[in-house]
Amino acid sequence: MEKGGIRVDPVTIDTTKIKHTKKQPVTALEKLNDTGLISTLLAAREREGMILFSTIDQVFNWARLSSLWPVTSGLACCAIEMMAVAMAHHDIARFGMEIFRASPRQADLMFVAGTVTKRMAPRVKQLYEMMPDPKWVIAVGGCASTGGPYHESYSVLKGVDLIIPVDVYIPGCPPRPEAWIYGVIQLREKIKNQGYGAKWGLNK
Amino acid sequence: MESDELFINMGPVHPSTHGVARFKLRMDGESIKECTPVIGYLHRGTEKIGEMKTYLQFIPYTDRLDYIAAFPNNYAYVKAVEELAGIEVPLRAEYIRVLTMELNRIVNHIVSIGSLLMDLGAATMIMWGFRERENALQLFEMLCGARMTFNYIKPGGVREDIPDGFIPKLNEFIKDMEKRIVDYEQLINGNEIFHMRMKNIGVISGKDAVNYGWTGPTLRGSGVDYDLRKYEPYSIYPDLDFKVCVRKEGDSYARFIVRMDEMKESLHILRQVVDNMPATKLISMAEYGISPMTGTPTAVSTYFPRIFTPPAGEVYSRIEAPKGELGFYVVSDGTTKPYRVKIRSPSFCNLTAIPSLVKGLKIGDLIAAFGTIDVVLGDVDR
Amino acid sequence: MNSAEELKNLLPGSVISTGLQLNKPMAVVKKEDLVKAAGKAKEIGFDHLSVITGIDYRDHFEVIYNFFSYSKKQNLAIKVNLDHDKPEVDSLTSLWKGADWLERETFDLVGIKFIGHPNLIRILLPDGWNGHPLRKDYDMNTEQFVTIGDNGDDVVSPDGTNLLRRK
């Protein structure tokens, strides 16, 4: 190949002959150093202990359960107790849940609070489908769980779990705010145990 | 100037529709050209269930009609059954019934005003209101163990006598509530923005209101001096001193003020009830060895069996519920179950007028007008 | 003289009989003359139409109108009897605007047609619902489901396709 009157030979590089310049750790101290743990610990000491160790699952689950934003979807009697839960006396803000979103696109939790009638059912399902993943559903009260007192009615769906998956059922007609908060705590426990390590109990 | 017509669907899941009401709105620019309410998203078939259950079994279902104020629902149905069967009620039981109903009227108006203001964008009132509502609910819990759905009033009286320590706590509530209503008035009534949102919005004349079948505080806001407690008295209301709160303007603000005044009147009634309640010896259940529900006469309930057959006949009985005239049409064919139960709910009839009420207004005014009509969708759809 | 007898005196040809609905006066009126009788009742002061009740008695239907007079503080009930095969009666929407929804509800749940009603469609149940629930022969065992149609309105679907998670 001619280039500017000078002949240049094409060069081929055999990658198999490249040797690792990094020294393989042999001793125990070298192996420990190789994990990066010591440098991390030293960095932690420099930053006065402001570094945490965790798994990705634990971090994500903690973030998710600490700020569950419910969608405002009050259907019937239970919705009034939902208001009572959100107000000062029972104060669901303690769980980071006081922000009831009017749009399902900004919410990750749906309280199915009240009787789901046949006519309302497709709309509840649509609301659920509009919510971004990950999302959770709490069926509140007898009506949403099984149809409750209206089980034999012609126009009531016999449980909201016929149309959408439900994570926690709260019994009662309507459930007291204390029962409501207990249901929320159960959901938090459930979220805590999500992820790959959950089946070995690693995320607890 | 004409602009393109715009169709807006509001609800059934909307934060300011108090449940699952839906409005189909045809808009001309920002004003509402035509408003079509679509209801029935909470239709639970209560009237059909009434035909399947015995007279006593149906009482819990009446709780779930107007779930904010359930005692008047209980009472309206029980009153119809009592008239049908000709059952006498002890005086003390009547006093307890009126006590619960007036307490519930206060709760209803608190929730109504609170949610109205929240829809208008002021969140303080609902926080304050639910603080007092919680106190009232604790009183209800002392009476019957439930916060919202009571099943307390039964044909022949009430389920149990009032417990020890109830009256002092009630007095405390009345004293507290008097101060709180002054607080509410200071918070809301003079607010300039509130006036602009409410005055001359959703105006309806008294004649039109009657034509639409309006009742309750909504009708009294249009200058019609009418209250069933006064003009078709039932229970112990003839013995009580109270005045009917009326405003002439017929706009949203007038309806709001009527509710405020009614809370004060209810407190006035409560005080009289507490003072005049006939003291009878409470017959303990141990004395009989059985609970009053199995049919033993007590101080607060005449003899009444669990299953009974009133004589064949039909009755239309109505009361003044917090939202308006609540009526039950009960037809008996002489069996253990009603042949037909028809519920005349105040919310349903009051909502009829909303298309004409909001014509030409903005969507924000629809929310104000709808909030002051004060409907509960369980009551509308039944 | 109670209000039902007063109505009979004014309209002797239309009122079939008078009686008591437990404690409230009631007049049974020929179904052709309902609007006439109700109009007369409105004239003599019964300005509040409280409720319209339709009842299925298996062999015939009854529709009962309960009125109240704000000026006289009196009650009046008007009853009409309808054939079971042809439950039709004239609408009162020309006299009371509040009758609009009450009649639609009676049409929806009991299946009584109100002739002259401007917008007689179902109100509590969606259009296309099979049967009238408050009739005594309503089939309670067949479930009906509702889905959302293209224009956002409710459509009745008998098997719940696209709605139920599993059959």
Beta-strand residue fraction of chain B: 5-15%
| Residue runs with pLDDT of under 50 for 5 or more positions of chain A | none
Helix content of chain A: 25-40%
Strand content of chain A: 5-15%
CATH topology value of chain B? Cytochrome-c3 Hydrogenase, chain B
What composes the largest sheet of chain A?
4 strands, parallel
**Helix and strand element order of chain A:** EEHHHEHEHEHEH
Write structural notes for this entry:
The complex is a heterotrimer of chains A (204), B (382) and C (167). By secondary structure, chain A is α/β, with parallel strands linked by helices. Chain A has helices spanning 28-34, 37-46, 56-66, 77-86, 121-130, 141-146, 177-192, and strands at 2-3, 6-7, 70-71, 109-113, 136-140, 168-170. In chain A, 34% of the residues lie in helices and 9% in strands. Chain A has a 4-stranded parallel sheet with strand order 3-4-5-6. The model of chain A has no long low-confidence stretch (mean pLDDT 81). Chain B is an alpha+beta fold and 382 residues long. In chain B, the strands form 3 sheets. Chain B has a 3-stranded antiparallel sheet. Chain B is globular and about 70 Å long. Chain C has one domain (3-157): 2-Layer Sandwich (Beta Polymerase, domain 2), CATH 3.30.460.80. Chain C contains 3 helices and 9 strands. Chains A and C meet through α5 of A and β8 of C.
Helix-strand blueprint:
The complex is a heterotrimer of chains A (204), B (382) and C (167).
Chain A: E1 2-3, E2 6-7, H1 28-34, H2 37-46, H3 56-66, E3 70-71, H4 77-86, E4 109-113, H5 121-130, E5 136-140, H6 141-146, E6 168-170, H7 177-192
Parallel strand pairs in A: 3-4, 4-5, 5-6
Antiparallel strand pairs in A: 1-2
Helix pairs in contact in A: 3-7, 4-7
Chain B: E1 5-10, E2 22-28, E3 31-38, H1 46-52, H2 59-63, H3 70-85, H4 91-120, H5 124-144, E4 153-154, E5 157-158, H6 166-188, H7 192-198, H8 206-211, H9 217-220, H10 228-231, H11 252-276, H12 285-288, E6 313-321, E7 324-332, E8 338-344, H13 346-351, H14 354-357, H15 363-373, H16 377-381
Antiparallel strand pairs in B: 1-2, 2-3, 4-5, 6-7, 7-8
Chain C: H1 3-10, E1 15-21, E2 24-29, H2 34-43, E3 48-56, E4 60-69, E5 74-83, E6 88-90, H3 99-109, E7 113-115, E8 145-148, E9 154-157
Parallel strand pairs in C: 2-5, 6-7
Antiparallel strand pairs in C: 1-2, 3-4, 4-5, 8-9
